[in-house]
Structures are given as structure tokens and as C-alpha cells.
UniProtKB/TrEMBL annotation:
Lineage: Bacteria, Pseudomonadati, Pseudomonadota, Betaproteobacteria, Burkholderiales
Keywords, ordered alphabetically: DNA-binding, Transcription, Transcription regulation
Provenance organism: Hylemonella gracilis
Name this protein carries in UniProt: AraC family transcriptional regulator
InterPro entries: AraC_lig, AraC_XylS_family_regulators, Homeodomain-like_sf, HTH_AraC, HTH_AraC-typ_CS
Pfam families (UniProt xref): Cupin_6 (PF12852), HTH_18 (PF12833)
């Protein structure tokens, strides 16, 4: 895994209202705030060159996966969805890295991605399925070129923010929506195909930007979706509350405080939050706090007593009870363990 991370955030430009009121923010602005706490760490990246007919299965892993169709087209299927057609310029992000299949057509039997020939260009950089400079044979099918990556969010897949995301985020015609994408993909292809010093780190940073672009484009495309994560992001008032919770998880958030932040009564705030997010404000705040504590304890080696103090608990015992209630295990079992390496 690459020892690097970069923000999944676009420059934040909050909308300012008139006469002391704040104007409704655009979804992308709220997305910026909510994703400030999200970071990505590179696992591996590859340029896939495939000749039809083909179909590859990507097994479930504890990483996020993204695919960008650079040339040609393909089909995507997950265990919970029908076949989805992807065209050149389309991109998809699977935040939890669930099982999925990419194919030149739905009827082609799939093989595991790990069985395909791959050439390592640099550490964690691969050419998969063929030489990008080869001349296709006369009897070969159409050539599809995709850029694929596996990255790990700094959040546990069960984190409430991750749990609110759909299994698949599709950004239709990303290349046309964001003019910078084609140039970025061209630069990424150069880094993959040329054995240059520092290619791995440069490519990883560009891949992070691409993943952020996919999420932003998905939010902009999915305006008809009125439930779950997209509903929360697109509602300026709920989005403001979520952004505050994730920006300062250690703060002693109460329902009255969050209701004031939203500018609503306690009851109307609680109802609106529960409808958009799927659980009560108190339960959501508790989950965010405990997942933050888990990261401190697992990855930073923080002592349980210090985590309890930072989250505002009066005693280590009360914190441990709350942690076990949310996480199912006492915090002492997490210390120094770290997340499992991706399978």
C-alpha cells in the first residue's frame, strides 16, 4: 500500500446569503464540507486493455474500487443490480468494494481479475490484459481500455458515513462534465506506461482527484434520488449538520445544539434528520464518535483513557460501555490492532 493520502475535497466556497441569511448551498459545496474528514490511501492502480469478448469478476475486498472507461464500452453488474451499460467517459466508484463484474457483453462468462496477465510497471502499478501499444490482431474483437484502481478510505466500511453511500456511484459521461478529466486520464496513462521515477506517487494523487470527481459528478447527476446519502448532501440544512458532526466528532453535540445549527425546533430537526439519514441524531452522533475513537485507538495507538477524555466522557468506564454498545467489543481489544489488510 502506498504511504500517502490526499484530501477528497474541492475548494470550499460557502454560499453567502443576504441580510444576514445564508443562501442555500449547492450540493458540491456541502459535499466539500462533509468529505473534509475523508481521505484515501492508494492500494493499487492499473490500466486494463481488453479485447472482446471478455468478462472479469472483481471479488469483494475491504477497499474502494473505481473504474473509468477510457475507450470503447462495457457492462457492469453487482449482486444487487442488473447489468448497467458504461460508455467511454463514464466512471463508477464502489465505496465498499463489493463483488462486481465488468464485461464486454452480459452473456460472456467471467473469470477472476487476478487470473489475467499483468505487468508490473512500478510498485502497485500494473498493465492488465495486454500491451497498450500492441496492434490488434485481425481476428481480435474491439479493444476496450479502462483505468481501474483500488483505494482505501480512512474510514471503516461500517462507518455511518460510508454506510449511507450506495454500493455503486456512477458518474455518467464524466469526461464531458469535467473538462479536466481527459487531460488527467492522459497524464495517468503516461505514468502507467512509462517507467519513470516517482510515477507511483504521482499517479496515486491523480487517482484520488479522479475519485473525488466521480463523487462530485454522482451528486450532481443523482438529483432525482431523494433518499439516503444523496438526500442528506442535497439538503443544505441537513448537510450543514452532518458537516459539523464529521468536522468536530469530539465535540459534545446535543440535539438542541444541532437543531439550532439547522435553524429548526428540536422535534422538526429530529424528524428531518431521521428521514434523510435513516437514524436519530443522537444515534448517529454516537456512532461517529465511536468510529473516531476506534481509529484513534487502532491506528494511532491512543490510550483508551485519552480517547475517553477527548470525546468528553467523565470516566473511562462510561466511555467503554458506550463504545461496546456501538462497536460490539470493548475498546481495549482495538488498541494497536489496526485494520485488516485488504484480502
Amino acid at each position: 500500500m502506498l504511504d500517502h493520502s490526499s484530501d477528497l475535497a474541492i475548494e470550499n466556497q460557502p454560499a453567502q446569503g443576504t441580510e444576514g441569511r445564508q443562501a442555500p448551498a449547492k450540493p458540491a459545496d456541502l459535499l466539500t464540507q462533509i468529505l473534509l474528514s475523508l481521505r484515501l490511501e492508494g492500494v493499487e492502480y492499473g490500466r486494463c486493455v481488453m479485447h472482446a469478448p471478455w468478462a472479469v469478476a472483481f471479488p469483494a475486498r475491504r477497499v474502494a474500487r473505481f473504474h473509468f472507461v477510457g475507450h470503447g464500452g462495457c457492462w457492469l453488474r453487482t449482486p444487487t443490480s442488473d447489468w448497467i451499460e458504461l460508455k467511454a467517459g463514464d466512471a463508477v466508484l464502489l465505496p465498499r468494494g463489493g463483488l462486481h463484474i465488468l464485461a464486454s457483453s452480459p452473456e460472456v462468462p467471467s473469470v477472476d481479475i487476478d487470473t489475467l496477465a499483468r505487468k508490473e510497471v512500478a510498485e502497485n502499478l500494473y498493465l492488465v490484459g495486454g500491451d497498450p501499444h500492441e496492434t490488434p490482431r485481425a481476428d481480435a474483437g474491439a479493444r476496450e481500455v479502462m483505468f481501474c484502481g483500488a483505494m482505501r478510505f480512512n474510514l471503516d466500511p461500517l462507518h455511518p458515513l460510508m454506510a449511507m453511500m450506495p454500493d455503486v456511484m456512477r458518474a455518467c459521461d464524466l469526461a464531458q462534465r469535467d473538462p479536466s478529466v481527459p487531460a488527467m486520464l492522459e497524464a495517468m496513462e503516461r505514468e502507467v506506461t512509462l517507467d519513470r521515477i516517482g510515477a507511483c506517487g504521482i499517479l496515486a494523487r491523480m487517482a484520488d482527484v479522479l475519485a473525488a470527481s466521480i463523487i462530485r459528478a454522482w451528486v450532481e447527476c443523482a438529483c432525482s434520488d431523494s433518499t439516503g446519502w444523496i438526500a442528506a448532501v442535497q439538503c443544505p440544512r441537513i448537510g450543514k449538520v452532518l458537516a459539523a458532526i464529521h468536522t468536530e466528532p469530539e465535540r459534545d453535540w446535543t440535539v438542541p445544539m444541532l437543531a439550532d445549527l439547522m435553524g429548526a425546533s428540536r422535534s422538526s430537526f429530529a424528524d428531518a434528520f431521521t428521514r434523510a439519514v435513516g437514524e436519530s441524531p443522537a444515534k448517529y452522533v454516537a456512532k461517529v464518535k465511536m468510529f473516531q475513537a476506534r481509529r484513534w485507538i487502532e491506528h494511532d495507538g491512543m490510550r483508551v483513557a485519552v480517547a475517553a477524555y477527548r470525546l468528553g466522557y467523565e470516566s473511562e468506564a462510561s466511555f467503554s460501555r458506550a463504545f461496546k454498545r456501538v462497536m460490539g467489543q470493548p475498546p481495549s481489544t482495538m488498541r494497536g490492532r489496526g485494520l485488516e489488510a485488504p484480502a
